[in-house]
Amino acid sequence: MKYIVANWKMNMNMQDVISWAAGFDTEVLNGKVTVIVAPSFLHIFPVAELMKKIGVEVSAQDVSIEEKGAHTGETGAFQLKEMCKYAIVGHSERKETAEVVAKKIDACLSEGLTPIVCFVEPEKIELYKRPGIIYAWEDPANISKNGVYKEKSTKEIKEGVKKIRAILKNNEPLLYGGSVNGQNVPDLVNIEKLDGVLVGNASLDPKHFSGIVAAY
């Protein structure tokens, strides 16, 4: 199974989401790829209802380390599991310590949520290893900004994937994130033992994103 994750970050309002759902090409869904979108917390419920109609899964963009209680502004895994199956954990933009990320992984797994665990340094994987995780290798220096994509050679990504696989050893899903777009995805598709991509800016355009999914 391949995974294509759209991290919308803090970009979409509800009208944008409705337009996105209408513009996404459902013909690219073929059962070989799990497509996941990650809206803001505020929109998870209505987005889940919309995506159910077109065969797309939903993820949270974060999760609390706390189980339950007096934690104003936090959203717990026990709440998220009512709306979605996945949660992005440890995205580089959040600048969290490995210890915090590990606690969030455990919070997800304890409630049956699948964590999409972001990491920059492959060495951190040893702290995160658990059954039932999707791993997403990020390169912060290569993350697109303001719609401008940065280039990282396919050779560099292949070498990184090989290094990460030597640490993982098993067949856990491994994704790549960093300026993924319609131009470079054909090369990413052909990288051995890479199971998909984490898409940022390019996922905001449903036609562009549909093309990325179609490549898989």
Automatic annotation (TrEMBL):
This protein's pathway: Carbohydrate degradation; glycolysis; D-glyceraldehyde 3-phosphate from glycerone phosphate: step 1/1; Carbohydrate biosynthesis; gluconeogenesis
Organism: candidate division WWE3 bacterium GW2011_GWF1_42_14
Domain of life from the UniProt record: Bacteria
Reaction equations catalysed: D-glyceraldehyde 3-phosphate = dihydroxyacetone phosphate
Signal sequence segment: none
Enzyme category, top tier: isomerase
UniProt entry tagged with the keyword Isomerase: yes
GO molecular-function terms, A-Z: triose-phosphate isomerase activity
EC number(s) on file: 5.3.1.1
Keywords: Cytoplasm, Gluconeogenesis, Glycolysis, Isomerase
SUPFAM superfamilies referenced in this protein's UniProt entry, alphabetically: Triosephosphate isomerase (TIM) (SSF51351)
Name of the featured protein: Triosephosphate isomerase
Gene3D superfamilies given in the database record: Aldolase class I
Keyword NAD on entry: no
GO biological process per UniProt: gluconeogenesis; glyceraldehyde-3-phosphate biosynthetic process; glycerol catabolic process; glycolytic process
Taxonomic lineage from the root: Bacteria, Katanobacteria
